[in-house]
Amino acid sequence: MAKLNEKNEAQRVATDGQDLLVVQNLVKYFPVQGGLIASILHKGKIPAVKAVDGVTFTIKRGEVFGLAGESGSGKSTIGRLVLRLYEPTRGKVIFDGIDLLKLKPEDMRHIRSRMQLVFQDPLAALNPRMTIGQAIDNPAAIHLSHLNADERRQAVLDILHQVGMNPPEAYYNLYPHQISGGQRQRIVLARALVTHPELVVADEPIAMADVSVRSILLDLMLKMKQEFNLTYLFITHDLATAKYICDRIGVLYLGKMCEMGEVGEVYEYPLHPYTQALLAAVPVPDPKRRRTTKMPEGEIPNPINPPTGCHFHPRCPLAQAICSQKEPEIRELRPGHTVACHFAENFLPKE
Amino acid sequence: MTDDILYSIRNLTVDYKTRAGIVHAVDNVSLDIRRGEILGLVGESGCGKSTFGKALLRLHDGPASIPAGELWFDGRDLMKVPMKDMPEVRGAEIGMVFQDPMTSLNPVQSILEHLTETIQAHEPGTSDAAATARAEELIERLGIRHERLNEYPHQMSGGMRQRVMISLALALRAKLVIADEPTTSLDVIVEAKFLDLLKELQEEFGLTILLITHNIGVVAEVCDRVAVMYAAKMAEVGTAEEVFAAPKHPYTQGLLNSVPNIDMDEIELYKMGGEPPSLLHPPKGCRFHPRCPQAMEICGQQEPSFEEIANGHRTACWLYQAHEAAARAKEAANG
User: Fold this and answer.
1) Is the pLDDT of residue A6 over 50?
2) Is B310 a domain residue?
3) Which end of chain B is more exposed for a tag (fewer CB within 10 A), N or C?
């Protein structure tokens, strides 16, 4: 362990000690077809899905950072790239000062105990042939190898207790199909937390849960954050949930970050037309406040051939000639609030 | 919206035979759907809302059966219609839109073929040219260019496929469309546009829509009235304005308060204890009582009836039947 830390120290990049995760210019292209024949057919230029196309953000220690966007925006891919479950095409992922993309597979395995993933579908994430105890013991056996079997069992029972599965002994030997959906999501959370990670990547963690169970799961996640000093990367398509749980948020469209900032700030003063449309589209549970805003035309385009210039321009009500020619730069127009739109100034609040 | 009732469902029960025993997925539920309204049917997974929707078309099969109930659609009881005549009702009078249009559309048929086949199956005299003309007009109305009629379902986006599903219902001028989670697989902007379309169709064609969903926001956005189901029973029915402003049933109250609202800076969400019960062994009395913060003694003993507590606003909760509860408690004590 000590040796590993030394090695990691050597690869440390100078960062502000506050930043737990720094993602720089992250790019992931998925080739549509691989192999020699495809390469000849396309004259060496194999078409690729540009799932993530130059995304930069930073998550401070103890923060809940949300990534929001529609399907195909690249939000889940970013979650997997951060944990290096996919190899990025380009870019940097720096976790606690360590450049993850330079780590050897073995060192990467060690560092994964400090970063865990919670998936959307708990039934798919849990092995139906493993008891709850085994499922949680599995990562513990890999990452907490200094504990003996009894100590590990105690660690599993402790974490079960903390996620509200009480009495933990009663659940230890049950199988996933014997418990309810909400309980399964607690188990997935417990399994992620048993190694005492610092960063949890939560990919739509409540989307599958029943409506009446969601608020409890959200609050459990916030409680666990306090208890374990966690930092969350919270991936969601639901902007109402993001508002409730996130401190800062990044809005993605077709693999690019279009707007980023504190949740309160972005929701109050959305500067990108896409963010504005997304916020307006969220159905509000109040029949007296029905939406009157018109929605943008069309649907999210094909990420193999994304539109030129600003990716959003074909659907944007404000698009001008420049939008199809030049990709907008990311600019900080208000403190901590960045946006990629040529005309974002139009939406700045009047002083 | 009028008080004219298009579909009156009386005491409907739908059973599933399982190895563990019979499950009443819908248990003695009554509901009126008024002509020209969008009625939202909300509930969580397993509450019976989808089973209810399918039973309105008698689309149950396999282990499901309807042991009791009357389905008075536009003046006749569909339960008395022979099963072989039901396909005439489905599509022509009641259309259905499911959550995943890809499983409802035929992948090897073009959109045009879907539409012309539907029209000609129900109106055998229609010429190809006339059917095509109708298909073109319809699809343009729904915001898809008619040149795209020759495309296949996989070439269309999710939002377009849902529009095609609606077009199939409109092609036959169905009076009622049952839409089961039609926007759940759609992105939020596409969802918003689809909901706009539903409202337009309601106004333009006088279409009646039963919108089945778990999303309370969607209901608030488009529905005139709301029905809330819990554990195979109807918990509350009323106008959207009333139910959202002053929900009566504690389940509805909890549900509304536990959903994050993007327009409000709520400090805390309501956290409902427990989870929906298994319908194999539902709790005795009111099915919500184990999770209910206001449960009284009677709630665990007897089931409350589904009563009107204000004009058109009904709920099944002992809180509003106090006089009756007292009488029954007295009766129980005496006898």
Assistant:
1) no
2) yes
3) C
